[in-house]
C-alpha cells in the first residue's frame, strides 16, 4: 500500500509493509466483532422490553456499551499483537525504506 503526501519534488512517499497491512486488518476485524456482539446484546434487550427503544437513556447506554466494547477489544488486540516495529517508514526523497 502506497500513500503520497505533498505535491512538490520533495514529497514524501509512505509505504506499509505486509506485516502492518495484516495488523491493521486484524485490528479492524476485532473492532467490528466487538461492535457486532454489543449490538446483538442491545437488540436482544430491545426485543425483551420493546419500550426501551423510545427511551433516550437506552440509546445512551447502547452508545456507551458499543464504545466500551470497541476500546476493550482494541486494547486486548494491542496486548496480543503489538504494533509491528518499522512498519511504516518514509524519506523526503520519496524512496521507500523498510
Descriptive overview:
This protein has 98 residues and is of the alpha+beta class. It has a domain at 35-82. It is elongated, with a radius of gyration of 20 Å. The mean pLDDT is 75. The chain has a three-stranded antiparallel beta sheet with strand order 1-2-3. The protein is 57% helix and 13% strand. Helix 1 runs antiparallel to helix 2 (56-80). It is built from two helices and three strands; from the N terminus they run E-E-H-H-E.
Per DSSP E runs of 2 or more residues, the count of β-strands stands at 3
Helix content: 55-70%
Element pattern in H and E: EEHHE
Strand composition percent: 5-15%
Strand order of the largest sheet: 1-2-3
| Arithmetic mean of pLDDT | 75
Task: Report the uncertain regions.
Answer: none
CA-based gyration radius: 20 Å
Major sheet size, sense and barrel closure: 3 strands, antiparallel
